[in-house]
Task: structure prediction
Amino acid sequence: MEKRFGALRVIGIIFKVLGVIVFFGALIVAVAMFVGGAARMFGPGEWRFMMRGLGVLSGLWVLLWGAISAVFLYGAGEVLDLLIAVEENTRATRLLLERERGDRS
Result:
Protein backbone atom coordinates (compact mmCIF):
# COMPACT_ATOMS: atom_id res chain seq x y z
CA MET A 1 0.00 0.00 0.00
CA GLU A 2 1.31 3.44 -0.90
CA LYS A 3 2.28 6.01 1.70
CA ARG A 4 0.15 9.13 1.51
CA PHE A 5 0.22 12.52 3.20
CA GLY A 6 3.97 13.06 2.93
CA ALA A 7 3.75 16.74 3.87
CA LEU A 8 1.65 15.93 6.92
CA ARG A 9 4.20 13.34 8.03
CA VAL A 10 6.96 15.96 7.71
CA ILE A 11 4.93 18.45 9.74
CA GLY A 12 4.45 15.82 12.46
CA ILE A 13 8.20 15.18 12.56
CA ILE A 14 8.86 18.93 12.73
CA PHE A 15 6.50 19.27 15.69
CA LYS A 16 8.25 16.42 17.50
CA VAL A 17 11.72 17.84 16.83
CA LEU A 18 10.58 21.29 17.97
CA GLY A 19 9.19 19.75 21.15
CA VAL A 20 12.54 18.14 21.95
CA ILE A 21 14.44 21.35 21.12
CA VAL A 22 12.12 23.45 23.29
CA PHE A 23 12.51 21.05 26.20
CA PHE A 24 16.30 21.00 26.08
CA GLY A 25 16.43 24.75 25.47
CA ALA A 26 14.24 25.37 28.50
CA LEU A 27 16.39 22.99 30.52
CA ILE A 28 19.57 24.86 29.57
CA VAL A 29 18.03 28.26 30.32
CA ALA A 30 16.62 26.99 33.63
CA VAL A 31 20.00 25.63 34.71
CA ALA A 32 21.64 28.93 33.79
CA MET A 33 19.04 30.80 35.84
CA PHE A 34 19.49 28.41 38.78
CA VAL A 35 23.25 28.93 38.70
CA GLY A 36 22.90 32.69 38.31
CA GLY A 37 20.34 32.90 41.08
CA ALA A 38 22.36 30.72 43.41
CA ALA A 39 25.49 32.75 42.72
CA ARG A 40 23.62 35.94 43.55
CA MET A 41 22.12 34.40 46.69
CA PHE A 42 25.37 33.16 48.17
CA GLY A 43 27.93 35.44 46.57
CA PRO A 44 29.05 38.87 47.67
CA GLY A 45 27.35 41.98 46.43
CA GLU A 46 24.48 44.29 47.05
CA TRP A 47 20.83 43.44 46.47
CA ARG A 48 19.47 46.59 44.92
CA PHE A 49 17.79 45.18 41.86
CA MET A 50 17.13 41.52 42.59
CA MET A 51 15.32 39.77 45.39
CA ARG A 52 16.97 36.77 46.99
CA GLY A 53 16.11 33.56 45.20
CA LEU A 54 14.46 35.25 42.23
CA GLY A 55 16.83 33.52 39.80
CA VAL A 56 15.95 30.12 41.24
CA LEU A 57 12.22 30.85 41.06
CA SER A 58 12.59 32.18 37.52
CA GLY A 59 14.49 29.03 36.58
CA LEU A 60 11.68 26.86 37.93
CA TRP A 61 9.15 28.96 36.03
CA VAL A 62 11.08 28.61 32.77
CA LEU A 63 11.49 24.87 33.32
CA LEU A 64 7.77 24.41 34.02
CA TRP A 65 6.55 26.35 30.99
CA GLY A 66 9.25 24.93 28.75
CA ALA A 67 8.23 21.40 29.71
CA ILE A 68 4.54 22.16 29.15
CA SER A 69 5.28 23.72 25.76
CA ALA A 70 7.46 20.77 24.79
CA VAL A 71 4.77 18.27 25.73
CA PHE A 72 2.17 20.12 23.66
CA LEU A 73 4.46 20.37 20.63
CA TYR A 74 5.46 16.71 20.81
CA GLY A 75 1.82 15.76 21.39
CA ALA A 76 0.77 17.68 18.27
CA GLY A 77 3.24 15.62 16.25
CA GLU A 78 1.88 12.42 17.77
CA VAL A 79 -1.70 13.45 17.00
CA LEU A 80 -0.78 13.95 13.35
CA ASP A 81 0.84 10.49 13.29
CA LEU A 82 -2.28 9.04 14.92
CA LEU A 83 -4.58 10.63 12.35
CA ILE A 84 -2.44 9.32 9.50
CA ALA A 85 -2.47 5.82 11.03
CA VAL A 86 -6.27 5.93 11.40
CA GLU A 87 -6.59 6.91 7.75
CA GLU A 88 -4.25 4.11 6.65
CA ASN A 89 -6.11 1.52 8.72
CA THR A 90 -9.47 2.74 7.43
CA ARG A 91 -8.24 2.54 3.84
CA ALA A 92 -6.79 -0.96 4.40
CA THR A 93 -10.08 -2.13 5.92
CA ARG A 94 -12.04 -0.71 2.98
CA LEU A 95 -9.78 -2.49 0.50
CA LEU A 96 -10.09 -5.76 2.43
CA LEU A 97 -13.88 -5.51 2.52
CA GLU A 98 -14.03 -4.70 -1.19
CA ARG A 99 -11.82 -7.72 -1.94
CA GLU A 100 -14.07 -10.00 0.14
CA ARG A 101 -17.18 -8.72 -1.62
CA GLY A 102 -15.53 -9.42 -4.97
CA ASP A 103 -14.70 -12.99 -3.93
CA ARG A 104 -18.32 -13.69 -2.92
CA SER A 105 -19.78 -12.51 -6.22
